[in-house]
Every structure is written in C-alpha cells, then in structure tokens.
Amino acid sequence: MRLLHTSDWHLGQTLHDFDRGDEHQRFLNWLLDTLEAEQIDALLVAGDIFDNPNPSADAQKQFYQFLTEAKRRIPHLDIVIIAGNHDSAGRLEAPTSLLQVLGVTVVGCARTASGDLELDRLITPLRNRQGDIAAWCLAIPFLRPGDVPKVATDGDAYLEGIRQLYRQALDYALNRRENGQAIVALGHCHMHGGQTSEDSERRIVIGGAEALPVDTFDPAIAYAALGHLHRAQQVGGQERVRYSGSPLPMSFSEIDYPHQVVRVDLDGGDVRNITPLPIPRPVALLRIPQQPALIDDVIQQLKALHLPDAPLGEQPYLQVRVRLTAPEPGLRAKVEAALDKKPVRLARIETTYGSRTDHDAADRPQSLDDLGRLQPDDIFKKLYQNKYQAEPNAELLAAFAELLNAPPEADA
C-alpha cells in the first residue's frame, strides 16, 4: 500500500496582506497530479488545513473542490484529515455525512459533542486499490488539555494524558487488525527536539515543557505522519516519525525550507520505503540584503536589482532589511522609489537599530518585528519575573497553558 503524507496547508493565509489563493491552488493542482502519477492509495493530511478557525468562503471552496476532484480522478483513494491548532474542529467535522460519501474521513476533535472519548471514531481503516484493508490509521487531532484522559501523575498531566490516549488508540487498533496489517498514526503536535519557524508557527506548548517525546509512538506504529512544524524533518533520529512540513513558506523565516510531501510504501505491517517528493515553489521569496544594512547600502542594492518581467501573481515577494541609527520617517518612500517599475512585490520592511549595548540586546526586542514574535508565555514569564524576581514554577506554567489552549467559545 502507498500513502502520501502532507500537512499545514494554511488555506486562506496572506503574506503581509498579499492574498495567496493562487499559490495554494497551484499547490493543490500539483498535489492532484502527484496523487495520480505516484499511484497513491491513501492521502493523510495532518492538520492546519486552514490558516484560521473562520476561513473565508474562497478558502473553503478551494478545500472542497480539491476533495471532490481527488475522488473523481482517483476513485479508490482514501483520505484522512485531522484538525490542527489553527482549525475549527466543529467547522471541519460539520459536513462529515457528505464527506463520508466521498470516502473522506475527518476528525476534528478527540471527544464527541457530549464530551465522551470514543476510540472508535479515532481509528479508521485504510484500503488498497483492491478494496482490502491494508492498514489502520490512528487519526488523533490537535489535543487541548480538556481532550486528553485525566491521569494521576507526579509529572505533567497533559503530557501523560496525550501519551495515554495514543496508547489506548493503538491498543484498540491492534485488537482490530488482521493478517499483519500496518498501523500508522496521524497527529498534530509539537515533538521534543523539533525545529520551529520563529515567525509563523503558533506555539502550542509552554516553554517546550509539554513537547512530546518520540517514544509516544510505540514501535508497533509503522509510520507517524505529523503536522504543526513547517520544516520537514525526522524526529528523534527515527525515519518513521516525521513532519512533512508546509507546502508553501508561511513567512520569510522559511525562505530556505525544502517544502515537500512524503510518499510511504508499506509492505504488510512494515514500511518498505519513505520518499520525500519536493514541491515546486510557485512564487519566490527574496531578502535584500541578507543581513540588515544601513539605508544607503540597501537603496543601492535595490536599485541594482534586476528581475525578469512577470505577471503580478508570479512576481517575487520581497523583504527589505534595514539597520537604522535614528528614526527614518521617509524610509518606505525611499524603498518604493528604488523599486519603481521593478517586477517585485514589497511585502515587508524589517527595521532594526544598531546603537544598543549588548545588555540591552539581551533584555529587549530589537524592533517591532521582534515584538511581534513574542509568544504569550514569553510575556507571562517576563511579567512574573519583573514582579517576583523569580521564574514561574511548572504548575503555574501548566495552568497558564491550559487557559491559553482552551477551545474558543464557538467550538465549546
């Protein structure tokens, strides 16, 4: 049986106010062609389908058109989708009855509307092109603290609850499988040691304390298809546990990421081959200069920039990086004048100041961009340190994490 692992589409995302619908459509068209050319039996989508819980009508239309076209072109294709931390669990699950007709399984929340944890809805069979069950999938969506079993432990109850849920789901699947069928897991989570993107990944753990260890995925799981981190990577040195990464760079911090999907070939209950398939980048991202420079140097580099003519939708996005020694009210006008009539889209001007001491650099952000990268737990810990001259303890951080990860009222 042959699987394809992808995640973190973030349909509806904009890059500094530039709409990316055409880029997403080009990816989805490429994905359809790849599913057909690679003779894929099952598509696994590991969360963050949309960029926010209330996606636009255009983003939803794009998603459902992809699903119907995939089933039209590859009728035998199984599709399993889980919700990520950016998705609305209820919105994803709302059309379940219609999607089941297409052979599409969507798991938005681990618990039912009544709050019950039903393992049967988290386990789905995967069929080969002959229609036989060749594998079982543990489809575990993004888990908030209220979703996991309550565990009495001296350690982190949220972490242990996640581990127990995966263990219960695995035991349930092992009892159902026959004749050496493979077990694969689908999850949207932060794994210990995973490399993150500083600009575009919303932190879902506090200080990394609740990042899952790789042994969460028992050796009986042939392959774990993960979502959340945008950099494609293996976890804990294990080839069978990996993030496919996002199909498009979500920010300029991802400019050098090798975006891909992952083809997985199963042989009975084992993995025979794991093959990354690179995704063509429809629109380039440029940084000028690579490191912040003084305004006069930057303007000269921009004037010297030569690019081939291209339609607006194919013109590169540009990040300009300027180091200032004093406020520069006319900065944007100078940059735009240097770029006049050049086929490029100015997405961002990043400004930093170079007149601070090393002590200042350690204590406060360099720019508004740095302020924008602060996470809620960063601010919480700084406020606590300022008031009490001490680090907040693990119990307090865990309580803050539970508040931060509480579901929005619309999904409650």
Notable characteristics:
412 residues; alpha/beta; Purple Acid Phosphatase, chain A, domain 2; six-stranded mixed β-sheet; 11 helices; 29% helix
The helix-and-strand class reads: alpha/beta
CATH class of the largest domain: Alpha Beta
In oligomeric terms, what are we looking at?
Answer: single chain
Write down the secondary-structure element order. Answer: EEEHEHEHHEEEHEEEEEEEHEHEHHHH
Describe the biggest sheet?
6 strands, mixed
Shape, please?
globular
Q: What name does the CATH topology of the largest domain carry?
A: Purple Acid Phosphatase, chain A, domain 2
Sheet with most strands: strand arrangement:
6-5-4-1-13-14
Radius of gyration: 23 Å
Unreliable segments of 5+ consecutive residues = 356-365
The helix content is 25-40%
CATH homologous superfamily descriptor of the largest domain: Metallo-dependent phosphatases
Give a quick summary of the entry.
The chain is α/β, with parallel strands linked by helices and 412 residues long. 29% of the residues lie in helices and 24% in strands. A hairpin with a 2-residue loop joins strand 2 (14-15) and strand 3 (18-19).
Task: Tell me what you see in this structure.
By secondary structure, the protein is of the alpha/beta class. It folds into two domains: 2-278, Purple Acid Phosphatase, chain A, domain 2 (4-Layer Sandwich), CATH 3.60.21; 285-373, no CATH class. It is built from eleven helices and 17 strands. The strands form four sheets. The chain has a six-stranded mixed sheet. A six-stranded mixed sheet has the order 7-8-9-10-12-11, covered by helices on one side. A three-stranded parallel sheet has the order 15-16-17, with helices on one face. α1 (21-37) packs parallel to α2 (57-73) and α6 (295-303) packs parallel to α7 (331-338). The longest helix is centred in the middle third of the chain and has 20 residues, at 157-176. The model is unreliable at 356-365 (pLDDT under 50).
